[in-house]
Amino acid sequence: MQPSLFSDLNDLRDSETGTITPFKTQLIKWVGNKQRYADQIITHFPKSYGTYFEPFLGSAGVLANLAPSRGVASDVFAPLMEIWLCLAEDPETLKSWYSDRWHWFQAGDHLERYEKIKADYNAAPNGADLLFLSRACYGGVVRFRKKDGLMSTPMGSHPVIKPEKFARRVEMWKPRIAGTRFERLDYLEAFARAGAGDLIYCDPPYAHSQSILYGAQRFRLEDLMQAIADAKSRGVHVALSIDGTKKSGNTYCDIPFPDDLFEHEHFVNIGRSMLKRFQMDGQTLETEVVRDRLLLTYDAPVRESTPR
Ligand SMILES: C[S@@+](CC[C@H](N)C(=O)[O-])C[C@H]1O[C@@H](n2cnc3c(N)ncnc32)[C@H](O)[C@@H]1O
């Protein structure tokens, strides 16, 4: 029997309304984070499915809201997957990764110590340093230099959350990922594992920013479209988030996809672009509203979203 959506998450439901309360507490900061809008996205998921796959995991915003009973969560970026594996297998170590760096950072010159952690990361990319850098860097935008691939984001001016607060977040996340297996995989490998009745939610890199983000891995939208078509023909349900409009107004990104691949299209408002905010040095850009398109290869009943 296939589990129905949220079937085993009764403890995460609002006891009065029976709805899942949107879960907006982030563990790490990541460009393209979907956590604030994840509750809108998951209302378009099928009512029932087998295993949930999230092959472009990033900061796991959708996974944490869905809290699937059976999931496979993956990303190709190795230091990032170290963080998720540590959360799943040894959450106390994850807390101490954060706490050790936070205390050392607080005890000296902040800028010098931030730069030292960044240099350590660049000398040997690893999850422990990346975790701290994602929380402490400017705008939460972990980005990499084009010429040599080194992490280059300066320190942010915001206070970095205390270890006690981070530890509470770890506890809040644990039940939400309890049914999920984490693996470092290229998305094509993850796709190959999904079978009839499974659900894949894809949130790929925006093609135009990939060269300075996420370690600048190879990614071609055309290959993803082919993988989605193959998965659909095997009976896998696929939901794809994709850059909907770049600026306010209706400029669609010009993204080619085969006719008949998608059955439905929805728009999800994701607010102002974080990357643009960063590039414009923190200025607020009222025009930079971003809407994501959510494309579905299946017929999904539109469920009521949780109250916002
Ligand atoms: C837009 S982000 C996902 C954001 C995520 N939904 C969140 O809430 O944080 C895209 C992710 O795709 C990953 N990625 C890039 N190329 C990939 C590939 N070939 N296979 C798997 N993951 C890839 C990046 O490392 C990045 O974390």
List keywords for this structure.
binds S-adenosylmethionine; 308 residues; Rossmann fold; alpha/beta; 10 helices; disordered N terminus
Oligomeric description of these chains: single chain
Bound molecules: S-adenosylmethionine
- CATH class (first level) name: Alpha Beta
Rounded to the nearest angstrom, the radius of gyration is 19 Å
**Count of DSSP strands:** 7
Can you offer a commentary on this structure?
38% of the residues are buried. Helix 4 packs antiparallel against helix 7 (163-173), helix 5 runs antiparallel to helix 6 and helix 8 packs parallel to helix 9 (221-233). The chain has a single domain, classed as 3-Layer(aba) Sandwich (Rossmann fold), CATH 3.40.50.150. Helix 9 links the parallel strand 4 (199-202) and strand 5. The protein has a seven-stranded mixed sheet with strand order 3-2-1-4-5-7-6, with helices on both faces. It has ten helices and seven strands. By secondary structure, it is an alpha/beta fold. It has helices spanning 38-42, 61-66, 78-89, 91-106, 110-123, 127-136, 163-173, 187-193, 221-233, 274-279; strands at 52-54, 71-75, 180-184, 199-202, 237-245, 264-272, 289-296. Bound molecules: S-adenosylmethionine (SAM). S-adenosylmethionine is lined by residues 30, 32-35, 55-56, 58-59, 61-62, 75-77, 186-187, 203-205, 214, 217, 219.
